[in-house]
């Protein structure tokens, strides 16, 4: 690759918009997964509300009643859907734990879907001091 081609490629890459979802994209992803608009309900999201480094943030989501699935969404990461977990009918207290990257301070939304079609969600505002997902 010649220097001129490298320079043009670097300028074109720098001019690209930052890869991130939007609030509208997150709401659309939630509706698509839940099959409608979930109501606000009882879900427990365990996550630090002040995160020093957004590269590997531990999170735990727990439902207080049996559900068919749990999902986690964010509006500012490159993709709004972080994880979707399915459960069998024998799981009495469904929960999952994972680590996620956070692009910046934002509201994390967990959604539960029951086998009978009911859906509910809960949110948590998280402040991130060192962002992830936007670093080169």
Number of beta strands: 9
| Percent of residues in beta strands | 35-45%
Order of helices and strands: HHEEEEEEEEE
Largest sheet properties? 6 strands, mixed
Stretches with pLDDT under 50, minimum 5 residues: 10-19
End-to-end distance, in Å?
A: 21 Å
Mean pLDDT: 84
Structural class: alpha+beta
Q: Gyration radius, to the nearest Å? A: 18 Å
Number of continuous helical runs: 2
Question: Portion of residues in helices?
Answer: 10-25%
What does this structure look like?
With 136 residues, this protein is α+β, with helices and mostly antiparallel strands. The chain contains 2 helices and 9 strands. The strands form 2 sheets. Strands 1, 3, 5, 6, 8 and 9 form a 6-stranded mixed β-sheet that branches. Strands 2-4-7 form a 3-stranded antiparallel β-sheet, with no helix packed on it. The relative contact order is 0.25. Mean pLDDT is 84; it is low at 10-19.
